[in-house]
Design goal:
Radius of gyration: 23 Å
Shape: globular
Distance between the termini: 93 Å
Oligomer: single chain
Number of helices: 8
Helix content: 25-40%
Largest sheet: 6 strands, mixed
Order of helices and strands: HEEEEEEHEHHEHEHEHH
């Protein structure tokens, strides 16, 4: 018969073994039930922390942001749901989650459509090139006339670029908004193939591929790669790229007036069956004044307008 001491030693050994197994099974603390730790975004004094921007990019609270001059770079909000991952576009690791614990709630899963995809390069003067689920840009495509927006607009989440052809009408529109007492900001503009690849991978990792396909373009299929798409932002909703942007003063003004300056809403409400993407009230594309006013008059998306002209 084992002694009391022997039985005690055996009991302690079994207990320690079980504790090790349970610890391995549970793993690290989870964030929002997704099993991933949230990073903390930091930046040296005077620089902007690298936080997510638009995916193509669920409401969450944001830290109050300071007032800025018209050409200042605004610090990013503390969380966003439609956003670029903090990781490098070339990183092979799984994308990081949004900062400050923000989580997104996916819609019910549904099969992603299987579409035939063609690849083409737009002509320099083609402002209506129909990049979409069916038509992609080459991975090597970079617009030939990109210029920085530093000094032209309030910038959120880093510096941004657009094509030169956009600049003059963008300046006129921003001046009109400021004259109306508004403070528009730009959260995203040109995005390279590699950056879109990282963005899409982040959303697949966060939401699963089916839901990611609703809120993020696959690499090569993003209007941002054209250099003529801009995500606008407002202090009224913490510079977040959310549907609440539509109710901000900047969002309402753009919806009513952007076409006068050559900009149209690419992904309106109720058009997901046509565009392939969920409603994005912040995402405008420059197509030129004449085309934009015609698109607005007809109540079409840029893709519908292009297809109607191609018939």
């Amino acid at each position: 018969m084992p002694t009391v001491i022997q039985r005690t030693v055996r009991w302690l050994a079994v207990t320690a073994s079980l504790a090790g197994l349970l610890g391995t099974a549970c793993g690290p603390a989870v964030l929002g039930g997704r099993g991933i730790d949230a990073p903390t975004a930091t930046a040296p004094p005077g620089e902007t922390a690298s936080l997510p921007a638009s995916p193509r990019g669920s409401p969450s609270p944001s830290a109050a942001l300071p007032s800025v001059s018209p050409t200042a770079s605004i610090p990013p909000a503390t969380s966003a749901t439609r956003s670029l991952p903090p990781a490098s576009p070339t990183a092979s690791a799984a994308p990081s989650p949004p900062a400050s614990g923000g989580t997104a709630t996916p819609a019910p899963a549904r099969p992603s459509p299987t579409l035939a995809v063609a690849v083409a390069t737009p002509a320099p003067n083609d402002l209506l090139f129909p990049v979409s689920r069916q038509l992609a840009l080459p991975a090597s495509y970079v617009p030939p006339d990109l210029v920085p927006l530093t000094g032209i607009a309030r910038l959120v989440r880093g510096t941004h670029q657009v094509r030169q052809v956009v600049v003059e009408d963008l300046k006129r529109m921003l001046a009109a908004m400021e004259a109306a007492g508004l403070q528009p900001a730009i959260s995203s503009a040109y995005r390279s193939y590699a950056e879109q690849e990282a963005t899409y991978a982040y959303w697949v990792h966060t939401l699963g591929q089916r839901e990611a396909d609703r809120v993020s373009a696959r690499p090569g299929h993003s209007e941002h790669q054209l250099g003529t798409a801009i995500d606008f932002a407002s202090a009224e909703n913490g510079y977040e790229l959310e549907e609440s942007f539509a109710t901000t003063r900047e969002g309402r003004w753009l919806l009513a007036n952007a076409a006068r300056y050559g900009f149209v809403l690419s992904y309106p409400a109720g058009k997901e069956a046509i565009t392939g993407y969920a409603y994005e009230p912040w995402h405008y594309r420059y197509v030129g004044v004449a085309a934009a006013q015609e698109i607005a008059r007809l109540g079409l998306t840029p893709l519908e307008y292009y297809r109607s002209r191609a018939r």
